[in-house]
């Protein structure tokens, strides 16, 4: 009989078409240690090709013998399906998370675009108001210049009016004084004329008395 061959820590999987037993030895007459479900990963410790058994170690550390024909090099279709479903669920969860992030980023982008639009409108309105304020300020400066010029003209006119008033008062006083002088002269002339006439008249009377 050929001696059992030692396996190089090969990993094999329980076939997906049944549930096999892990026994203490090579044969059905040995004690069943436990049942192994389809897809269970087993570490092969050695193989006995003559008896068709392989010594394996379970993930929990139990060692025993199983029929080699019930082992395969790849996980069972059921295990692969479960793994694929698990990966699919994981991808779906990641896709959902990414979709939520995309939706969040999209909403933030829309909010930023809306804020930018509002800022553009506010900027346009402020530009119009600033332009109006500048125009108003420019007009105010022009009006202030015009007001200053008008005030200067008014002050000049007031000064001219005061000068004319003073000149008019001076002329009025001079006219009154001239008329007073004329009146005084007329009065003096009248008085002198009266004296002359009176004297001349007295002489004529004296002459007439002396001729009689």
Give a verbal description of the structure.
With 212 residues, the protein is α+β, with helices and mostly antiparallel strands. Among the domains are: 5-75, SH3 Domains (SH3 type barrels, Roll), CATH 2.30.30; 76-147. 63% of the residues lie in helices and 18% in strands. It has 1 helix and 7 strands. It has one helix spanning 77-210, and strands at 5-14, 20-23, 32-36, 41-48, 53-57, 63-67, 71-72. The longest helix has 134 residues, at 77-210. The protein is rod-shaped. The termini are far apart.
Strand percentage lies at 15-25%
Order of strands side by side in the largest beta sheet?
6-5-4-1-7
Q: How many β-strand runs?
A: 7
| Shape by Cα distribution | rod-shaped
Report the order of strands and helices.
EEEEEEEH
Please tally the helical runs, counting DSSP H or I stretches of 4 or more residues. 1
- Helicity level: 55-70%
Radius of gyration: 70 Å
End-to-end gap = 227 Å
Largest sheet: 5 strands, antiparallel
**Helix- and strand-based class?**
alpha+beta
**Could you tell me the mean pLDDT?**
81
Oligomer: single chain
Low-confidence stretches: none
